[in-house]
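Q: Give me the 3D complex with 6-O-phosphono-beta-D-glucopyranose.
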Amino acid sequence: MEQQRPPSVLVVFGADGDLTKRKLIPSLYNLASSQLLPQEFAVVGLARTPMSSADFRDKLGREIHEYATGPVDPALWDWLAQRLYYISGDFRDSHAYQQLQDLLAQVDKSRGTCSNYLFYLATAPSFFSEIVRQLGVKGLTLQTGSSWRRVVIEKPFGHDLASARALNHELRQVLDESQIYRIDHYLGKETVQNILVFRFANGIFEPVWDRRYIDHVQITAAESIGVEHRGSYYEEAGALRDMVPNHMLQLVSFVAMEPPSSFDANAVRDEKAKVLRAIQPLNQIEVLRSTVAGQYAEGTIAGQRVPAYRSEPNVSPESKTATFVALKLFIESWRWAEVPFYLRTGKRLPKRATEIAVQFKRPPFLLFRKTPVDQLEPNLLVIRIQPDEGISLRFDAKIPGPTVRVGTVDMDFQYTKYFGHTTSTGYETLLHDCLAGDATLFRRADSVELSWKVMDPILDVWKALPSGSVPKYAAGTWGPQEADELLQRDGRQWRNPS
Ligand code: BG6
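A: Here is the predicted complex, encoded as structure tokens.
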């Protein structure tokens, strides 16, 4: 256990922002509460807002009550608060890095943190390369003896293949790949991690997990919220960049990967990368045929009128940014050839629900020809990522009575029923793992680039389309009609989370 909790300092760039108060500090508090932080631990925040370390502690001390996932124990908070430090500075100014170096030396002495530093870049992506460069100039990324230096990078990781490659290249001027922890917060979700356990810790699913038994896979990541205060970011990103090359393709990789030879970080990431490499890139015609963009118009969600995307703050009234995307992908491998993976994600859909639905092939009808049964429903395995986390398996059963009638029933596993309510921010595992040096749940450079390789042809074709061609959908509906037609053409239909 000691090895899991090495003495360390977490240095947060952008410590005055949302991520720190909403996720990082509450997660550290939860880790401390589970005794998963070492005694020799400290947090150094660095951001532009002028503040002293005492101000920083006070501010977070007030905010923790709002963002903690449960009641705050004053003694435990005190333990963490004593370990918080702050430097105000400009990320482009070498003076800030000098101050950081001096403070880290001081903290190492007073807290016994052994020169192990985890630099967390919770900043705008335009600062990523510059911060890493400056850390390199000061020698702060150099690992000497048994001390380690790691850098955590939040998304977005590039906005297309070229920019992702350039960023990887810049990072590797200073860092070794093993020092880079690219976060995808979906991988911090228990239910996402459970996909691997579900598949590889049980003997009964893997034998039917392939093209012989599976008809198709649907992955839906629906949100009922709009773009909120993130209009300017979203105008540039859109639904495709925001959700697909990262969260959704990670889900595809977990569902489709081969069993890794071990749970070693590289063994798992090698298998995930193979899936991404095997996704057949779409040509221009296929982009037009197999992808659907959509943008929300005004509508009603949970009885409330909500404005159109184009009327949101910091959004152009003529915006052609997609707030919804649906697409069909194929993985060219022996396991998955000809099995479509349908992905869909969008803002202002009727509800928040992320789920993976694996639909199995229909059984032959032979036995029921002479009965009133006119069709057999295929088996369906649904992995509910959030909310209402769980897994259900639908199968056909005889409806009691003298004639043979068949109905569908569900076997349902709900996390909360079995394990109770777990209170987490979703960042605990990720923070714990980068402090422990376990990169299994982090994205490697190849996976980032391979994902953009799949996205680039879609982005190119979409960019060339006239603005009027983004279909609208009323807020509170499951996206534009074109998304339904995408499946109807294949004789299938979306399963809308109930
Ligand atoms: C983020 C996107 O990465 O994921 C957001 O930028 C989106 O637009 C969010 O709302 C969804 O995450 P979650 O955990 O709420 O499903």
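A quick observation: The longest helix spans residues 231-256.
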